[in-house]
Inverse folding.
C-alpha cells in the first residue's frame, strides 16, 4: 500500500488532529524553527532543491552539506523522521538552462550529495533520488548509483525527481512504470490527484501539498476553530480541515490506482 505524506507547514507536525497522519515538510521553513517537538505522525523532509535551483541556479545560497547534515540529524533526533531528501539537482529543461550544466552533471551532483551526507553521518536517514528527463537518462542514473556501490532496490525509499510538473502526461506515467519495474521502492514528489490516480500504485510513497494551491482559490474560508487556530480565514490555503479533506481525495485516488489493473482484467474478461 502506498504511504501518502500530506505536505504541511512545520507548525502542523505537532497538531493533535494530524496524529498518525504521514506528513511532508520543506527544510526551508523547518530549519528556521528554534524549538522542535516530536511529530505526531510519520514525517519526511524535502530539501527544497527545486526552489534553490529555480531561484539561484545553484545550491550556493542554501545550507552547505555539513549544515544540511546537521539539520537532518536534528530532525532525526528531535522530530523523529522517516527520511530526508539529499541536496539533489533537478533536471527539468528550464532548471538545466538556469544552472548551465548538463543532465549528466546534475545526476553526478545528486549522487555526490547523497554520498557526502552519508560520509558526514552514516546514520542520517537520507534517501537517494533518481534524476533525469528522458527514460534512458533515469536508467543511466540507476547504473551510476550501481557504479557508486548503491543498489537502489535495497534502499527503504528512493525519490524520483523531475516528474511532478509533467505528471499528467503519458510520458511521465510511462517513466514511473518503467522505473518501478526495476524493483526500486519509489517515492513520488509532489503528485496531485490525477497523478496519483494514474500511477499511484507504482509508488511505495508519495507526497503532495497541492491542497494549499487549490485552497487559495477557495475565497470563502471555513470557520475552523481548534487549539492554535485563529478562527475564520480568508481562504483555505492554510486551513488544517481543508487539508485533511483534500487528503481523503488523494487516498481515494490511490485506491482507484490500486484497483485499476484488476478492473482492466475484469473488463477484458467480460469482453
Amino acid at each position: 500500500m502506498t504511504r501518502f505524506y500530506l505536505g504541511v507547514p512545520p507548525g502542523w507536525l505537532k497538531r493533535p488532529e494530524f496524529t498518525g497522519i504521514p506528513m511532508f515538510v520543506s527544510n526551508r521553513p523547518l530549519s528556521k524553527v528554534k524549538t522542535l517537538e516530536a511529530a505526531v505522525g510519520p514525517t519526511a523532509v524535502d530539501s527544497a532543491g527545486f526552489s534553490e535551483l529555480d531561484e539561484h541556479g545553484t545550491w550556493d545560497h542554501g545550507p552547505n552539506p555539513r549544515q544540511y547534515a546537521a539539520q537532518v540529524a536534528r530532525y532525526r533526533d528531535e522530530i523523529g523522521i522517516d527520511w530526508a531528501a539529499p541536496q539533489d539537482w533537478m533536471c527539468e529543461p528550464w532548471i538545466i538552462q538556469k544552472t548551465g550544466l548538463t543532465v549528466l552533471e546534475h545526476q553526478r551532483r545528486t549522487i555526490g550529495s547523497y554520498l557526502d551526507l552519508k560520509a558526514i553521518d552514516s546514520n542520517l536517514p537520507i534517501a537517494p533520488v533518481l534524476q533525469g528527463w528522458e527514460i534512458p537518462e533515469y536508467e543511466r542514473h540507476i547504473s551510476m548509483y550501481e557504479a557508486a556501490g548503491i543498489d537502489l532496490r535495497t534502499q527503504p525509499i528512493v525519490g524520483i525527481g523531475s516528474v511532478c510538473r509533467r505528471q499528467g502526461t503519458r510520458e511521465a506515467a510511462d517513466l514511473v512504470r518503467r522505473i518501478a519495474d526495476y524493483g526500486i521502492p519509489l517515492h513520488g514528489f509532489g503528485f496531485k490527484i490525477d497523478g496519483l490516480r494514474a500511477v499511484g500504485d507504482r509508488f511505495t510513497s508519495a507526497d503532495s501539498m497541492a491542497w494549499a494551491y487549490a485552497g487559495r482559490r477557495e475565497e470563502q474560508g471555513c470557520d475552523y476553530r481548534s487549539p492554535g487556530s485563529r478562527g475564520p480565514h480568508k481562504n483555505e490555503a492554510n486551513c488544517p480541515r481543508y487539508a485533511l479533506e483534500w487528503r481523503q481525495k488523494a487516498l481515494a485516488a490511490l485506491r482507484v490506482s490500486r484497483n485499476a489493473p484488476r478492473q482492466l482484467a475484469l473488463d477484458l474478461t467480460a469482453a
